[in-house]
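Section handout, structural biology tutorial.
Before the tutorial, make sure you can parse a SMILES string by hand: atoms, branches in parentheses, ring closures as digits. In the record below the ligand is coenzyme A, and the chain has 283 residues. In the tutorial you will relate the predicted structure tokens back to the input. Do not try to memorize them.
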Amino acid sequence: MKNRSALEAYSEGKAWWETEISDIKKNSIQLRGYPIEELIGRVSYSQMLYLLLCGELLGDKKAKLFESVLVAGADHGPRAPSIAAARMSATCGISFNSSVATGINLLGDIHGGAGEKAMKLFYRTKRLYDEDGDLHAAAVQVCGEFLEKGEKIPGLGHQLHDDDPRVRKLYSLSQSYIESGDISGIYLDIAEEIRKALQEMKGRKMTMNIDGVSAAVQCELGIPAEAAKGVFALSRGMGIVAHAYEELMNGLLVKGPCPNEDALVRYTGVPCRHIEEGVQYEQ
Ligand SMILES: CC(C)(COP(=O)(O)OP(=O)(O)OC[C@H]1O[C@@H](n2cnc3c(N)ncnc32)[C@H](O)[C@@H]1OP(=O)(O)O)[C@@H](O)C(=O)NCCC(=O)NCCS
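Predicted structure of the complex:
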């Protein structure tokens, strides 16, 4: 990604908006070169997403695998901060799309967005592996680098699950794609090797999470790491839309983060004190 001034690029003769994605003229809409009327009714949602994002049409089979990633991440109930935030917003009288945006805006490196970091890690591990052909050594090296910095390895661990059905299913589905030769499986191997390496280093069971396996599958499909948060927003966006809609239809008003129970919110500041008349307060 080049960082340069838009004004400079414009003065060098580029158009103000340059795009390789869409060519829109009167009565003509072409996306990545394909007339929209040829895409409508022929390509799936995941094929359209891949086309817009990566520039080419994904074959039907691979598109189904990509779609499985989108389906897997769609919802994790109101325990997931993004879903809870969207539902909370819906009770506060803001518009439906603003409630949806509130949920989407909560997706970050820790909740829902670890995929980007995981993909960068897997792509990097692959480069190390290509250099010296030792996958285990590459996995140990990258895990060591994260731990030295005091950082968690993206794509591993979960607050609730230690045998996440989504992870299990995406792995077994991917296995059938490896067997049929549709994907190489190298990034799934890399993810698993990193999990094993961390498990050895920590001396405790470490599990792959949904962001980790989704990242590995997206690497298999050649999706750029920087796109991962956007892809997840479209996946979790389905759940966010449904939950915000349900809460809106419930008609409940002002549902805060928790009910008014003392045990749930605790004040930990100075005890009650009073402003004394005539005293100058300075700090
Ligand atoms: C998701 C996450 C916050 C869950 O944490 P948790 O269940 O509360 O696990 P804990 O923080 O209690 O960790 C338990 C132990 O496992 C270790 N651990 C858990 N996940 C780890 C990870 N991804 N990398 C390194 N160590 C990890 C912790 O360091 C801790 O070890 P310690 O006892 O030696 O300190 C954590 O696993 C994480 O940050 N993962 C990376 C980010 C990610 O993939 N997020 C997507 C989640 S779907």
